[in-house]
Amino acid sequence: MNARQAAFLSLEKMRKSGSYSNLEINSSIEKYGFSDADRAFYTRLVYGVTERMISLDRVIGHYSARPCEKIDPDVLTVLRMGAYQLLYMDSVTPYAAVNESVALVSKSKKSAGAFVNALLRRVAEKKDEGVYPDSSSDRIGYLSAYYSYPEWLCRMWSDDYGYGKCESILKAQNEAPFPTLRVNTLKTTREELISGLKERGIFCREGDISPFAVRLDDGARIGTLDETADGRAFVQDEASQACALTLGAKKGDVVIDVCSCPGGKSFSLAIGMENSGKVYSFDLHASKLSLVGKGAKRLGIDIIETREHDSTKTVPELEGKADRVLVDAPCSGLGVIAKKPELRYKDKSAVERLPEIQYSILSASSRYLKPGGRLVYSTCTLNIRENEEVARRFLDSRTDFRPVDFSLPNGKKSDGGMLTLFPDTDGTDGFFISLFEKVL
């Protein structure tokens, strides 16, 4: 099984089943045991084709006599792979990109070899010349086709943040993110962790926001590190670390994380509490809660109690019992597209339904707090309707809560208790954090 064959199988599986790219990639890497070079090539090809599908189909449709929807799906996947190599992978020669694509399609669709050969040769010769809309006369169409995002999303970000900021976000989320670790200070220090990684030739540095973050080179085999296997660290973006820090949970507190899976923020909270107190980790799906239990055991945390629960409702016996509550609400995920590129293709109507669910969870979860207790409402999305508008709606409906301004360790400050981190300027996931205090 070579890297191109594996990439084809993964892309076809994702097309048919709708599975997430990161899960499919991790599964295939483990299954096929690639060399470092093949692993990197395979990963780039799967992520890249998924990420650039709108742009690739624009190019393929431009050079094909048949529209993309009329091309056999297997053949279209091979064309996308070949075009991606020609347009975005300078390390691959045009000869290799074309010939390997022909060889790949000939295994199952032999008759399509001539079509694939001819089309990809035109792409190799002309690249994407004259393919995209004019950026001055069709600004949204240009952003969509060139950066490979649906037009509704480009329009939303342009309206919300301005055209220039929108383009900057699109560009940033098309770049491979650097993996980030959260140090488990129950077992080690950041200095010791960095020293150990560097001794083995793994490039890393301190994070920019969290005092517990370690950023790794994007080529590091993060899934096979001893440090994550033995619980000295776990994978967590700095934005999520900042979210947990903002809640300010202390040793001995009672904390409720209402949408906890896969558990990273519960882990950060428990570690910050020095494994003293109580963390209730809720999730709607019981099947996911085992991830929290296994992770806590690996990290040496024993104060987390998991529970299957629909957080649009309140657990009566816990009302008024919590010092801190985290509502990291289910969201559209538009801030983590760099890690899950398929999220850009979410249905707009599904995104529009989320604020009502988020508000219901926030309202129900607020009843857990004691007077003086604090609540963080957060999402990993860039969408004012899911973020600021939900937070303001909550504040407008409650006289017993007030916003609390806060600063991150790097000095970035909230405005009215709300703060958004952007991938283009903060180097993190796109992330929204808001902080409230119960005053009555």
What is the CATH architecture descriptor of the largest domain?
3-Layer(aba) Sandwich
What gap, in angstroms, lies between the N and C termini?
Answer: 63 Å
Task: State the domain count.
Answer: 4
Give the C-alpha Rg: 23 Å
What shape does the CA trace take?
globular
Largest sheet: 8 strands, mixed
Question: If you consult CATH, what is the topology of the largest domain?
Answer: Rossmann fold
Can you give keywords for this protein?
N-utilizing Substance Protein B Homolog, Chain A, globular, 8-stranded mixed beta sheet, 4-stranded antiparallel beta sheet, Alpha-Beta Plaits, alpha/beta
How would you explain this protein's 3D organization?
By secondary structure, this protein is of the alpha/beta class. It folds into four domains: 3-126, N-utilizing Substance Protein B Homolog, Chain A (Orthogonal Bundle), CATH 1.10.940; 139-172, no CATH class; 180-235, Sun protein, domain 3 (Alpha-Beta Plaits, 2-Layer Sandwich); 238-438, Vaccinia Virus protein VP39 (Rossmann fold), CATH 3.40.50.150. 47% of the residues lie in helices and 14% in strands. The protein is built from 19 helices and twelve strands. The protein has helices at residues 3-17, 21-32, 36-51, 53-63, 73-88, 94-106, 113-126, 139-147, 151-161, 163-172, 190-199, 226-229, 238-247, 264-272, 286-299, 348-352, 354-365, 388-397, 423-426, and strands spanning 180-183, 204-206, 213-216, 233-235, 254-257, 278-283, 304-308, 322-328, 369-379, 401-403, 418-421, 431-438. Strands 5, 6, 7, 8, 9, 10, 11 and 12 form an eight-stranded mixed sheet that branches. The chain has a four-stranded antiparallel sheet with strand order 2-3-1-4. β5 (254-257), α14 and β6 form a beta-alpha-beta unit. The longest helix has 16 residues, at 36-51. It is globular. The mean pLDDT is 95.
